[in-house]
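Model it.
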Amino acid sequence: MSKAAKVKQADTPIFTPTPEAKAQAKSKRLIALGLWLVAIILEAVAILWVLRPSFDELVASQGFPQWRWWTLIGFVVVIGLLAIAGSLLWKQANRLDPASRKEPVRFFIQNQLGAFIALLAFLPLIAMIFLNKDMDSKQKGIAGAAAIIVALAATAMGIDFKPMSQEQLAVESQVVTQLVGQDLVWWSAGGNVVHLCQGVSDLQNVTTQVSSGPVADALASGKQGITLELASELSQCGLPTPGNLPEIVQWVRSARGL
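Modeled.
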């Protein structure tokens, strides 16, 4: 077997993002933090102002003013949109500059921070809606239900169910480099995985754009990683198949936390 066809499973290599990737990640994280801060400020405004009409206003409106109720609904929607937008940017940043699984606490917090922020932005507000003594039961029920639904959506969007890690990027880049000869993969806009060459069957007759580049670029664009059907792809690409291919596939799976 040729040296090029043999992939060694050495200690997990270290992935270092490019300066450009780190700069993009920093920018996205700063914007996300800004959006989350605005969301929490709006939550405070909703609790301290929207939900607290003056006695004279309550008397004049014969109950909780309708305009305040609609304003509260608007606050709930805007807070949810800000929380979700921040989470999407934060997850994009984590793909550009991921954390390491060797630091499990940091890895968990960094990848699930969006969900925690969504809870922080909604739980106090939901509690104050249901504890409010000025709204009638209908107003309270609709506003509370709306806040719960938006909170659940924002929390779900904040969860990263398949977080990227430094180990995954490093391992997959090394595997591709040693199998193909360089860190170059191909992927389609509509696919979930990346491929070892442009000629594989999965990329034939696709209706979406086909891109190429390093593994890090593919994974930063949202792809899950290289295909695990490596035997088929190596054959289609005319590349030698290493004897330890099953172990290589398991190595990649382990790096993904599967």
